[in-house]
Every structure is written in structure tokens, then in C-alpha cells.
Amino acid sequence: MNRNKFFLFLLLAPIGAIAQDPFLNEYVNRLESSRHYFVEMISALEDEAHIDEWYPAEGTMTFRQQISHTMRTLSRHTEIYMDAPAYGAIDWDNLNKEDLIEEVKLVFDYAINNIKVLSEEALNTRVNFFAGSMTRRQVLQIMADHITHHRGQMAVYLRILGYQPPRYRAW
Prior knowledge:
mainly alpha; two-stranded antiparallel ribbon; 7 helices; elongated
């Protein structure tokens, strides 16, 4: 009986190894931390009027536009490049602060749930990204960088408006 369990373990061990891809686990942890940090950024903006009515210079995005652009990009890149089902259209312009926060959480959850199931083969599959042919693994890195870029802009907006941005959090 013990011998059968041992052989069953040997047979199933590679499946467990695939599900425990270190890169994917680290990436999902990073995205979960990023979700919390992103929500903290929005929460730090006390005057809801600053979401739409203020931007630092002509040609730059408002706080809401930073949020909607980042979330649209995260959901579309997850859909297109990670081969996930469509997220659906959101009317970001008509959400109050609390609804913005809830929708941000949902977009991050959508991305996390569709990314964490990718196999190593899927991660290594090349896709035609706007910057050229690259692996899905590379696209994930670009997606994380894009979130960081816009979250950093939100932190600068907060400082200019006199708010204290949330303390930096590493993943």
C-alpha cells in the first residue's frame, strides 16, 4: 500500500511543480500587494473634487484618468495577451470614490485570477505585443511596470495637493 502511494506521489509531483512556478507565485504576490497600494493611493485623496477637477499641467491626466487608464490597460492586457475572457466595459467617468475603489479591486482580482492559472508553457508562449514579439512572462513584467508608473504619478499628485501618499510597500 505504501509503495502505491509513493508511485502515485511520483506521478503527481510534476503537476504540483508546474502549479508552483516561482515566477508566477512571486508575480501574483506582487500584483496583490500592488492592488492594496493602488487602493491606498485613491483612499488618500480626501477631497473627491480633486479626482476630476485637478491635473498638474496641460496635457496630463486627472487622478481619475490615471486610475481608469491603468485599470483599462490591466484588464485589456490580461484579456488579449494572457488569453483571458473579456472583462467588460466600465463607465469609469461616473463612479464615485468608493465605487472607483471597488472597481479597482475587481479589475485586480480579474487579472490575478486569470494570471495565476497560466502554465509554464503559456508563460513562455510568444505573443505579438505592440512593442514586438515577446513572451507572456515579459508582458507581465511590462504590465507591472505600467501599474507602478501610474501609481507613482498618483503619489506625485497627492504630494502636490498637500496629501501624504501611502508609505511605500514592497511586495
